[in-house]
Structure formats: C-alpha cells, structure tokens
Please model this.
Amino acid sequence: MKNVVVTGATGNIGSRVALTLAARQAAGQGGGVIGFVRDPLKAAPLAAAGVTLRQGAFEDDASLRAAFEGADTVVLITAGSTLAEQARAGIEAARAAGVRKIVRVSSLKASVDGPTDATRQDGRVEAWIRERGLAHVILRGHCFMQNILKNVGSIRDEGKIYFGTGDGKIGMIDVRDIADAAVAAVESEAWDGQTLELTGPEAIDFHAVAAAVGRELGRDVTFVPVPPVAAGDTARRFGVDAWTATVLTEYCAAYAAGWGDFTTGEVERLSGHAPRSIADFAREVLVPAVRGG
Ligand SMILES: NC(=O)c1ccc[n+]([C@@H]2O[C@H](COP(=O)([O-])OP(=O)(O)OC[C@H]3O[C@@H](n4cnc5c(N)ncnc54)[C@H](OP(=O)(O)O)[C@@H]3O)[C@@H](O)[C@H]2O)c1
Model:
C-alpha cells in the first residue's frame, strides 16, 4: 500500500483529497495519508479522520524532506504569490526523498506567457515537473464555483452578485470535482504523464449563475457586472493581499474576453462521475451558506 502526502492539506482542495484518501485507508483500500500542514490546530479535523500530520512550510526544506520521507506520491498544492517557489521546493524535496509520483494541482491553461501571474507561475512549475523526470499528473482547475461564496452577503442582503467577468462564459468547476479527480490520479497510473484541464459541465456567464442561484434560493438574484479593476479593488478593500487582488483583476479581464469559454470531459474520465453543475453547487453549498449566515 502506497503512502501519499498532501500539501495544502488545510485548503479547499487538499482537505477533501486528504479526507477521501483517509476514508479509503480506513476501509482497507489505500495506504497511509500524510497531511503537510503549517498549523496542526487548524488541521485537527484531518487528524481526527485518520490523516497523519507532519508540520512544516514550503520555506523550510528540512520540514518538506521529513514530510516526504517514505512517500510514494505527493499531491502538490501550493498557493499565493510565491506559489512557484513553493512548488519548486516541493519538487526538489520529493526527488531528494525518493518520491515516485507528483499529482500537481495547477492553474487553467498554465503557460509562461499566460494572462495572469498565477497562470505564468504554474507554466514554470509544470515545466520543472516534466524536466525532473518524476511520474506526474497535472490537473489544471478552471475557475472555482466556490469563489461565488465571496458574494454570500450581497446575495442575502441585496439579491445581487457583483463580479468582473462581464458577459464572458466560464467553464467553472466545483472544487469537490477537482479533489475527486486528484484522488483518481493518485489511485491509478492510467493518467500518468498527462496534463488535464478540469472544468464543470457547461460554460456559463454570471447572468446564468445568478439565475441558477435565484432558482435554488426561491427569489430573484441578479448579476451586476463591474470592471475587472473594480473587482480587484473591492477584494483589496476586503483585506485580500495585493498579489491576489491583481491576479483576480487579470483573471476577470481574461474571462470577460472569452479565455475561459470551454469545457472538457476530463472530470468524468478521471472520477467516473459527471462534474457538478452550477445548480448542484447552488443547492448543496451556496444556498445553505446564504441561509446559514
Ligand atoms: N480560485 C480559483 O478559481 C482557482 C482556480 C484554479 C486553481 N487555483 C489554485 O489552486 C490552488 C489550490 O486552491 P485551494 O482553494 O485548495 O487553496 P487554499 O484553500 O487557499 O489553500 C491553500 C493551502 O496552501 C497552504 N499553504 C499556503 N502557503 C503555504 C506555505 N508557505 N507552506 C505550506 N503550506 C502553505 C495553506 O495552509 P494554511 O491553511 O496554513 O494557510 C492551505 O492549506 C491555489 O494555488 C489556487 O490559487 C484557484
């Protein structure tokens, strides 16, 4: 049975991957699951579910190597302005520790000349992974449906969703499907060497998002387009760091221009189930958040 380390294990995707793998292990269907975490207190629910915690940070090479010791596979999730540096440290530590395979959660259409800094950084990361000769699967996630949770307050108070993508259609995805795809990429060698763009079932604009949310909520919800720069500025005013706000502006401009107007069948191919729709997300995640707050 192979041991798997999940980095970013307290995050949206990593926590679901770690919990799913731990459940498989508890059912006798998988090896050990290790969560690489900065804060064991924050990771207490993972430990309670059977995930072994190894504390550290990407900036601490010794902690990375210790966490990766004895692992067959690393699910490499990094985040923020230094995401490429973090990933580079993770790739080098994986090689030093004798890790066989990396499952990388990357950015949509990652490319060194992409339209956002996250896209460009992940373009570099993907090149390093391929150069280093490790077995790998690269999963490029489309825009997360969970980003809409930032609008819970305006949906509840005003029946409005503000966002900076204009009429651009986006093949947005529920992060639960990215996690399911990552688990499949860990458990099977069938996808090794592949780079897969993961999307939801349809490319939709935010007018359609608002309509779907309204249907599930049972009241009118409308989309209010704002300029991409205004979306970034608003995020900054709500306490988001400068890099993230700039990247948000860049993504909004790209999506408004149609850069994200596509879907693929990769989620179903990997996970064996259809990707969740915006109606599924609204019913199961967003509306409970709107009603619960
Ligand atoms: N938003 C989108 O639409 C979208 C689309 C595609 C891809 N992505 C990217 O996909 C990646 C995963 O997304 P996510 O939502 O799962 O991320 P997330 O919820 O923001 O979680 C990030 C994880 O990385 C950990 N982390 C951050 N800096 C670290 C460091 N220096 N050392 C060790 N751990 C560190 C965090 O730990 P703490 O809990 O300690 O902070 C957390 O566990 C991100 O890079 C995201 O930007 C996003």
In short: The chain has a mean pLDDT of 97.
